[in-house]
């Protein structure tokens, strides 16, 4: 694959990646930086396999499959770097947290990420396992806990 | 019978979460076909999921951020993915791309 093909394939992913970055760090610049750092980490690690790959850029189906593969692979790095960064920025995050999404941002960063993967991007549990590098039972546990805490918060809001 | 019903009730959320195995999923779907009243319970859970989705921020990139990300991505791809030239023309193409995307 030529690098300009990789560039064209990955360009439409930036907006989606940014959304995920924002679920971890709710700050425009920090989220932007997180996207770039994740792409760079991915390129450094997978450079050879990207360039080696034979791809028919004319085929819409091939392009879609490949784009999804790249998306998941970059998300893997985004999760690893972003969760760590989010923990480091815990104090700063208290100020950044958008008020309308306070219940969401009160969740643990990894739970937030898993919940977004499941309910926002509708990845299957198997795909999430692969992205967040966690065993299936932990992924399911995080989805259940996150959903319980969010809905619980919503019910509290209704009854008050 | 009651036990089986309850066990399928417990499977609604895992079904919607996509965490059931293939066999469990088709078993569950077959059960729903024979128990149409189950549909209502599934819909309630679906509504819950919709509520959850609204609690997740769905930000959009501003024009400036989109442009900045685009140029950062271009720089990363052209700096970090170094192609090996297969011919003299290839080498010229790579050099030209590098020059244009500096």
Structure description:
The complex is a heterodimer of chains A (160) and B (102). Chain A is mainly alpha-helical and 160 residues long. Chain A has helices spanning 3-10, 13-24, 28-52, 60-88, 90-96, 102-105, 109-120, 125-132, 136-159. In chain A, α2 (13-24) packs parallel to α4. The longest helix of chain A has 29 residues, at 60-88. Chain A is globular, with a radius of gyration of 17 Å. By secondary structure, chain B is an all-alpha fold. Chain B has helices at 2-10, 12-17, 22-34, 38-54, 63-80, 88-100. The longest helix of chain B has 18 residues, at 63-80.
In short:
Chain A is an all-alpha fold and 160 residues long. Chain A has helices at 3-10, 13-24, 28-52, 60-88, 90-96, 102-105, 109-120, 125-132, 136-159. Chain B has 102 residues and is mostly helical.
Relevant terms:
heterodimer, A: 160 residues, mainly alpha, 9 helices, 81% helix, B: 102 residues, 6 helices, 75% helix, elongated
Helix/strand layout:
The complex is a heterodimer of chains A (160) and B (102).
Chain A: H1 3-10, H2 13-24, H3 28-52, H4 60-88, H5 90-96, H6 102-105, H7 109-120, H8 125-132, H9 136-159
Helix pairs in contact in A: 2-3, 2-4, 3-4, 4-8, 7-9
Chain B: H1 2-10, H2 12-17, H3 22-34, H4 38-54, H5 63-80, H6 88-100
* Rg of chain A computed from alpha carbons, rounded to a whole number of angstroms: 17 Å
Helix content of chain B: over 70%
Distance between the termini of chain B: 70 Å
Strand content of chain A: under 5%
Shape assignment of chain B: elongated
Query: Biggest sheet of chain B, in brief?
Result: none
Q: What class do helices, strands and sheet pairing of chain A give?
A: mainly alpha
Number of helices of chain B: 6
The share of residues in extended strands of chain B comes to: under 5%
Helicity of chain A, in percent?
A: over 70%
Spans where pLDDT lies below 50 across 5 or more residues of chain B: none
Q: Could you state the oligomeric state of the chains shown?
A: heterodimer
Question: SSE order of chain B in H/E notation?
Answer: HHHHHH
Count the E strands of chain A. 0
Work out the radius of gyration of chain B. Answer: 26 Å
Largest interface: A-B, 44 and 35 residues
Major beta-sheet overview of chain A: none
Total count of helical runs of at least 4 residues of chain A:
9
